[in-house]
Task: structure prediction
Amino acid sequence: MIKQKIVLITGASSGIGEATAKALVKNGHKVILTARRQEKLDNLVAMLGEDNALAVAADATQFDALEKVVTAGINKFGRLDVAFANAGTGVTTSGTEQGDPDEWSKLIDINIKAMLWTAKLTLAHLRETKGHFILTSSVAGRTSHKGSIYGASKWFAYGFGQNLAEEMAQWGGRCTTIAPGMVNTLFFDEPKPDKLDPVDVAEAVLFAIEAEQRCNVREIFLMPTH
Result:
């Protein structure tokens, strides 16, 4: 029997976060869901069941708001086993010379700061359960893409995940960096059915957290077959 996990998911209202919430609850786990859109979260909780899921709307870039999410989740479920820092965004104008500094600022807030806030706010709780931190990086955080500010933010995520894994190992915690290629989500204007599906990433998260405690799945790299 797989031990039931209490899992916090940021960016949970759509895409990878939503698919992960569904996969986890289907496999007997419970989830703390956060994103900015309360209505989307409420609809997801209605589908998953209030015994299995808690929704707390928050902007993950705001430290105090995210702290309230963690507190509410602990109050409902009594502990935290896994934190999945999944919230992320991209830019509409590519490159450095032609890029938009305002877009860069928002990207850094979500792709970097929100991930750091999630780690800072959950690690003490994860230490108590010898828990697990998971983050969404990207193939763009493992390879070079000309002028990509988005890619650079995912390089940060990738490096942070490697360093955090070493930090958590000191007390028996685990850290997994998920690095997918292109995923067919609302991130893109046009559907991309030949690319990865959010379910593929959700199954990777499930695999990592259900691995035996002795097995620290440090990285999962996913690419579309074609």
